[in-house]
Design goal:
Elements lengths: L22 H17 L10 H12 L3 E2 H8 L3 H13 L3 E5 L7 E5 L1 H21 L5 H19 L2
Antiparallel strand pairs: 1-3, 2-3
């Protein structure tokens, strides 16, 4: 079993993929490295889950949200959001309270612990972005963004 701080291994090179364009696999590798670096130093528990961080990021942008709105914003299933919020509340990241207008509905807000987690997470993302783009600026950055946008759009087509 590897330690939490050790980078997980890359998938093996596959002979079957050698003739295909390498860029998509490079993008996946970069994504894996960015995710790993962004999650280093994070607490154990519920915030180790991507879905919990997704919920927290929506609350950081739009606090005091109705629980049903969180379901729509995150595109997660209602039971999933409910379970996540219960764990996040137990660990002190959010608080839930009845909606004043509709006592059956729940409003969700970040606690100070949740806000602090978000600040640390954003700081790691900022540091990683700056590290990743070291030596790439101006026209190079514009070209990279244009090419990545084209790849994203190709994959978004139906």
């Amino acid at each position: 079993m590897r330690s939490k701080k050790e980078l997980p291994p890359s998938p093996p090179e596959r002979e079957e993929l050698r003739a295909l364009p390498a860029a998509p696999r490079m993008i996946m590798e970069i994504s894996r490295l960015l995710r790993f670096r962004a999650h280093q130093g994070e607490e154990e528990g519920i915030m180790a889950q991507n879905t919990a961080r997704l919920v927290l990021s929506h609350l950081a942008v739009r606090d005091h949200v109705n629980q049903l709105e969180l379901v729509k914003l995150t595109r997660l299933k209602a039971p999933t959001v409910s379970v996540l919020l219960r764990h996040m509340e137990e660990e002190g990241y959010v608080c839930r309270m009845p909606d004043e207008a509709d006592r059956r509905a729940m409003r969700v807000s970040l606690t100070e612990k949740g806000r602090e987690f978000d600040r640390r997470h954003l700081s790691r993302i900022s540091t990683n972005d700056q590290t990743a783009m070291r030596g790439i600026e101006g026209e190079d950055e514009e070209t990279l963004i244009r090419l990545l946008t084209r790849i994203r759009d190709n994959l978004s087509e139906r």
